Amino acid sequence: MRVAGKIVHVVRVTSCQFDYFNLFYMKFKFLLSAVCSLSTLSIALSAQNLSELVTLLDSGEMNQRTEARNSIQQLLTNSTAPTADASARMVLEQEALQLLQSDLSHSAQVWLLRMLELTGSEASIPVIAGYLNSPDTELRDCARRALVANPAPEANAVLYQAMLRSSDAEKRAYIDGFAFRGDGRAVKAIVPLLKSDDADTIALAANALALLGESSVYSELKLARTNAPEGSRAAIELAMLALGADASTCKSLISSAANVGVAEAAFVALIKKDTTEAVAVLQAVVDEAPSPLRTAMLGTAMTAPALQVNLLKNLDSRTPEDQLIILSGILEQKITSAEASVIALLSSEVKAVRKQAIFTLGVIGGSASFSTLYSLFLNEFETDVSNALAMLDLAAIDNELFKIVENSPDHKQVSAATQLLAMRNAEGATDLLNRMIAPGNSDDLRVECMKALEVLGTLESCQAMAQFIVSGDSVKRPAQNSLKRLCLNYGDPDLLWNSVFVPALNTAANDAIRADLLVIADAVAGDDFLAYIQKKIFDIGSPLRPTVLKTLQRWPHMEASEVWLELISTPNVSANDIKAAQSGLERMVKSKKVEGWEKLKLDQIVFAVEKAPTPEFKKAMVNLYLKPNGYIQHYLHDAFEQFADDPDISSEVSAVLAMVPESKVRRKR
Amino acid sequence: MSSKKIIKRRSFLKKSAAICVTSSVAPMILRAEILGLNGRVGPNSRINLAYVGIGKQIGAHFSIAGRQDVQALWVCDVKPEARAYGLSEIKKRGGECKATPYYEDIVNDPSVDAVVVCTPDHWHAAISIAAMRAGQDVYVEKPMTLTIEEGKAMVTACERYGRVLQVGSMQRSNSAFRKAAELVRNGYIGKVKEVLVGLGNFPQPKLWAEEPIPKGFDYDRWLGPAPYEPYSSKRVEGNYGGGWRCYWDYGSRKNGDWGAHHYDIVQWALGRDDSGPVAFYPKEHEGAQYHSFEYDDGVKVIRDHGDRKGHSIRFVGSEGEVMVSRGGRIATTPSDLAGRPLKPSDVHLYVSHKQQVNWVECIKSRATPICDVNIGHRTATICQLAGIAERLKRPIIWDPVAEQIVGDEYARRWQDRPRRAGYELPV
């Protein structure tokens, strides 16, 4: 069994030395276990069940067969639990083995062998071994797999003998089995196969030897390579690399390997064996023309400190392709000493190189990176640069930014600094920004600070901005934008509605000012605000009614549909209200911005059809599904078939249902 | 099992290998034409790509075939109609490529730089390892492997051959999942107590009456290393509600389906990418209502617990919660956590906006992709161990350092599965 690339043995400890070619001992142990089993037959109730279940494996009913398979598997695997009675497990296994030796159907034999793959003990080996001679290919293969999975060392000898008499194709399966078992004792059996005439057999033998990790076979591999038939050389070379090829061999394989994979593997191995030689190879490689192997080797070199230094030299004069590889290495290995070289790449004309250099500085950079990036940011306000500045982990940066915000007369500097303080989520930034938005400071500064608060703001920030809106402050418009964004980032709509919007509405001088606040209130789309809207909508004379109708049309959740349905059900509903409801419901279905399960949205549309105030409204609702997506198609028949005979919309319903492919005609609601 | 088919495949392999070897004999000194083996073009040129497994999941991968820096050379599938579909999709994107039922054609083609492995899970390891040992980079769909030991072999191969391997647990490339993981990882919800994860369920795997194998479909090869079973269309179909995904022989059911996404995010958020849980408990064990697993610090991950507040994953911490789902949906308690930027001293997780694009960029820069072989292996290990506990109906104790099941020698056998003759695993 392989563990993190190494081979460990998953075998039970036996007190007796096993001889590969001595099956006598094994037969003796089998007889012994059989005698034990006979002595415990009194607890063989489960075996009775097993026999009955096995007969069901040939049932004419496929469901019964499935159940029989599942039950047999459960019965046998339950018996292998560490807490289970070991003797009961043995009894059950014996029953399974006896059944296998009786006159069973093919499918029953297959299933029992597959179950013994999971549960068979040493005692099962002789019976399963008998199947290795079966004329039936499937049974033979099931038996091989059952033995391969059996950790008892005795299985090795049986597999080895079977391999000797097998065809080339099956031989390869046995070799794979030895590798699977991870039993180093199989090496002796595999080595002779390196001399096979068959390239596939040699390749698999080499694979298995590599997996088994026996370096003692290195010379045999080396010899095999000199005579390797076509198609086996790569596997042999890879096995040589896995089993201790020296630096000289690694070096020669880099240039003479059977394929790029082997050449790269040889370079990986060479770095571990001899860094001096690896550096020499790398120096030669750097001067080569571009190739996938060269690219891979440069990438690998950046993971080895002894080789990195060669690539970091003259970084700015290398090709952009090489620069990208080296920059990735600097980033992943966090090579802070390369800061100056990376800064030099900021002048690269290749966009990708410049972008990668900026990002790399954000991760590995120090004060030199800050001053360089900050100057860039002041000039161009690039997103990549601000992101890098936001990541730079230097305490001094925040102090400097605070000073700029509080003292600098340069608006550009202050704007940049407030943005960065927000992006860096700097300690104390929120308090500072809350102070800076107060009237008395310059409007430009207040607007910048409100923008910064969109991500950092608190309830106090929201309340201040709401007051700017209802008090007609000179920053009213920007305050509307910032408050809306801040509310969306802040979440908790009911809290914001009750603590920010309601108090501000109460202090507003008139309804026109209230409307200025309500127009952005879809950012606090919660139950409490929805209840307020509902109240205003059904208060026909309210001057705020048109505003809240518009806000409801932008509602981000499908809950708004309840209000629309209620509105269209009102007696003598106006044409304008019908239009508003239609628009709101259409947006609910079509806009991805409106949250809600599509199926539930469809249910609401069905209600809307049922309650439709006009035939046109009905048609508009059905037509929403004229281009249905693959998911909702499953539900359309159940939703709209009931309206097929409605003279108002029968043709619309037919058109929608015609869009549904046969395979999606019906799904239970 | 058909030995005829195996012989056919073998003789075919020899032919392909012969082409490969003949063209790669070279002197023992470093020269440009040696490093640019067999006339392959350099990194300035396009990445020559091959697709193996043209099923339901392939759509997302074809998009990279339309990139200027990528050229599709092959599509491969055992079903003729899938090959035809693959060819037509490449053509739509302005490409021309060849089709084959044999992945060995691709592995032995020295002009192929990279391979997308999009087959059912039981084929992932063999094809990926074969490609890597031929010097090809790999994108393999999630879960990375069918068995734990295959995963270890993949890790070894990737390191040995210096390849760039990306696993398709693509929620890592979604900003909401990344944000959720960063909030958890940096302690914004305090100490994590439990994680509730929704995977859903597949129908139980069933035996179906045998049907004739469709003309041209190489069913034996579709089964590959898995045990032989009579053909039925419902066994091999690739739909998301069942098909092969229901069968333990070819996948890990919901553990490998949604689990390979959500458990991957749990690992990321908990900072366990190089480790894993220590115990797996099946439903009904000591009256448990749900399948679950546990980390060494007591964090419990509970599958399909209903109280996820409408989300796919809910992290419950001592000072708050993070809920996250596809579609960019994230919610937190306190509510303002999601909108807050990280501090420079916080752990900033790997940023990728699209898994496939990240892979292509990493092929060029040789950077480690967002979901590399080690991460893919550790996540797949969880999927598989959860499946083992579920099937054995008993707890499984796992040593994430030694990577072995502990104290249950029969359960340990389930860490790997012997392969059918003719479908051996390369190393």
What's the structural blueprint in terms of helices and strands?
The complex is a heterodimer of chains A (669) and B (427).
Chain A: E1 2-3, E2 6-7, H1 23-39, H2 45-56, H3 62-78, H4 86-100, H5 106-119, H6 125-131, H7 137-149, H8 154-164, H9 168-181, H10 187-190, H11 199-212, H12 218-226, H13 233-242, H14 247-256, H15 260-273, H16 275-286, H17 292-301, H18 305-312, H19 320-333, H20 339-344, H21 351-364, H22 367-380, H23 383-391, H24 395-407, H25 411-423, H26 429-436, H27 443-456, H28 459-470, H29 476-490, H30 493-507, H31 511-518, H32 527-537, H33 545-553, H34 560-568, H35 575-590, H36 598-610, H37 615-623, H38 630-640, H39 650-658
Antiparallel strand pairs in A: 1-2
Chain B: H1 3-22, H2 32-35, E1 47-52, H3 59-62, E2 70-76, H4 80-92, E3 98-100, H5 103-107, E4 114-117, H6 124-133, E5 137-140, H7 148-160, E6 165-167, H8 175-185, E7 192-197, H9 219-223, H10 233-236, H11 253-257, H12 259-270, E8 279-281, E9 292-294, E10 300-303, E11 313-317, E12 321-325, E13 329-333, H13 355-365, H14 373-392, E14 396-399, E15 404-406, H15 409-412
Parallel strand pairs in B: 1-2, 1-4, 2-3, 4-5, 5-6, 7-10
Antiparallel strand pairs in B: 7-11, 8-9, 8-14, 9-10, 11-12, 12-13, 14-15
Helix pairs in contact in B: 6-7, 7-14, 8-12, 12-14
Notes on the protein architecture:
The complex is a heterodimer of chains A (669) and B (427). By secondary structure, chain A is mainly α. Among the domains of chain A are: 67 residues; 110 residues. In chain A, 68% of the residues lie in helices and 1% in strands. Chain A is built from 39 helices and two strands. A two-stranded antiparallel ribbon of chain A has the order 1-2. The longest helix of chain A is centred in the first third of the chain and has 17 residues. Chain A starts with a strand and ends in an 11-residue tail after the last helix. Helices cover 33% and strands 15% of the residues of chain B. Chain B contains 15 helices and 15 strands. In chain B, a hairpin with a 3-residue loop joins β11 and β12. The radius of gyration of chain B is 22 Å and the shape is globular. The N terminus of chain B is likely disordered. Classes of the chains: A mainly alpha (669), B alpha/beta (427). At the A-B interface, β1, α3, α5, α7 and α9 of A face α1, α2, α7, β13 and α13 of B.
